Amino acid sequence: MATDKEQAKLEEKLEREYEKKHKKKFKLTFGDIIFNIFNYGFFAIFTFSCIFPFYYIFINTISSRDAVIGGRVTLWPVGFNIQNYLDILNVGTIFQAFGVTFARTLIGTALMVAATGLIGYLVTKDEMWNRKLWYRFIVITMYFNAGIIPWYMNMSMLGLTGKFAAYIIPGIVAPYNIILVKTYIESIPAELEESAFMDGAGFFTVFRKIIWPLSKPILATIAIFGAVGHWNSFTDSLMLMQESPELFTVQHLLYNYLNAGSNLAGMMNSGTSSNTGALETLLNAKVIKYTVSMVTIIPILLVYPFMQRYFEKGIMLGAVKG
Q1: What does the H/E/C string look like for 49-103?
Q2: Closest Cα partner for 300 from 102, 58, 85, 112?
Q3: The pTM is what?
Q4: Burial of 29: CB neighbours in 10 Å, binned 0-12, 13-18, 19+
Q5: What pLDDT is stored for residue 268 in this prediction?
Q6: Which of 8, 9, 38, 156 would you label with 177, given CA atoms 20 to 30 Å apart?
Q7: From CA 191, how far away is CA 183, in angstroms rounded?
């Protein structure tokens, strides 16, 4: 008598033979082939158009300065060298700007995620006083904005100009992220909270031990939003930190390099400055702009792969209902 293992193997073999015998091979029609060609071609071009700007900047940073200045760098590096990255070390304020940007991104994102998670949970509770009123009050700020001048006056009256706190405080409450978190939390089975309440847990205990761990996908999603926003922001630094250059962000520093190069180029074209020293400064500024641009892009690109597994699940579940 055959053993269970042999019986299982026999059944598996018979099943494979049956499927092989009766399975109909799928054949692509001429229309399917044409559609696939256009589909893959379109997405290949779209992907290339997204990647090429970063690639172009990168190959310019590792090419010789003469090749970059002469416009000979197109699809691959010319005259490989990493001196441009070493020269960045001589830019006195670059490390300070990176420190400010890193600190701003880490602290601002952490506080935003913590506050958004807590507020998103509280506005799902009927026990919260005037819950609907507060929730609508938060959401309405997404649609009405006083403008830059009132914003600057407000920041000035609060004494935040020239202060590091100006980077952090305005971004702690993010209405759109609160909507995502609220919607995600509402998808968590209510029985989990009810059982915790029956065991004597309070709202903050339930939030810390149940809601927070289960909300990691949506929290990781809004963390990406917050980190990218803090890392790329330079308007607040440009407007609020003019008297505190030690608090300039990397993006503000890059903006200054872009302006310096453009202004110098305009002076040379108008004949105001035509000496060799000005030309050398302009050419070096162009290379520095490419290199600093690449350096500012790399850190945020390195963070995304670690958060990607949470991103898709979080953004889909958090956007099912409003």
Answers
A1: HHHHHHHHHHHHHCCCHHHHHHCCCCCCCCCCCCHHHHHHCCCCCHHHHHHHHHH
A2: 102
A3: 0.72
A4: exposed
A5: 43
A6: 156
A7: 17
